[in-house]
Amino acid sequence: MGKYNGPKRRLSKREGVALFKKDIKYIERKGAVPPGMRGTKVRPRFSEYGTQLREKQKAKRMFGLTEKQFRRTYEEAARTKTATGRKMLELLETRLDNVVYRLGFAASRAQARQFVGHGLVAVNEIKLDIPSAQVRPNSVVAISSKIVDNTQIKKNLDENPDVPAWLERKGMAGKVLRLPQRDEMEKGISEQLIVEFYSR
How far is residue 116 from each of residues 7, 52, 101, 122, measured CA to CA in Å? Predict the structure, then answer.
């Protein structure tokens, strides 16, 4: 199945959490009733498999990956000596598009992916247009001079004055100081459920 291109809010309602920053207030106000369920806020009960599947779907959608991309990330993590779930999250967090998002240059991971795909981001002064590229510690990620005066980026920076401790931002550039710790990664994901799903 390819990437979902429908309304993003529908995905947040389906998974029961705000997958995207812009949905946080809506979910807090309206609740996360799955699409098609009207007049009730009781979410359906899932089997063990169903719970694992929903967690995998949630993480996949949160980071904006296709099933193939997400499985590839899991398989890469499984080949390392690090705990698979934690390594999988680390690989997701250190994707170039996610780093651009975490640095506050983009309002969403989708927008960050667009910036990267359009060749508007450089890593260590080399233009990279591959959103899935892994960014290593001590790498410098910079926004192209073509859009440094872009009002949307300035707005994004104003709305995101702070960055995670594993990153550092100065002007239109940021540096990966180190790999993120678990409490600095996406907190809304239970990686163990995803490992169990793929281990079946």
Answer: 22, 31, 11, 8
Whole-prediction pTM: 0.79
Check whether residue 61 and residue 14 sit in a common domain. Answer: yes
What does the block give as tokens for 112? 């960050």
Range(s) of the domain holding residue 125:
95-178
Residues 83, 45, single domain; the answer is yes
3-state secondary structure 61-75: HHCCCCHHHHHHHHH
- The DSSP code sequence of 152-167 is HHHHHHHH-----TTE
Estimate the share of the chain in helix, then strand, then coil, as percent rounded to the nearest 5. 50, 10, 45
Residues 112 and 64 placed together within one structural domain of the fold: no
pLDDT, tens digit, 9 for 90 and up, residues 102-137: 999 999 999 999 999 999 999 999 999 999 999 999
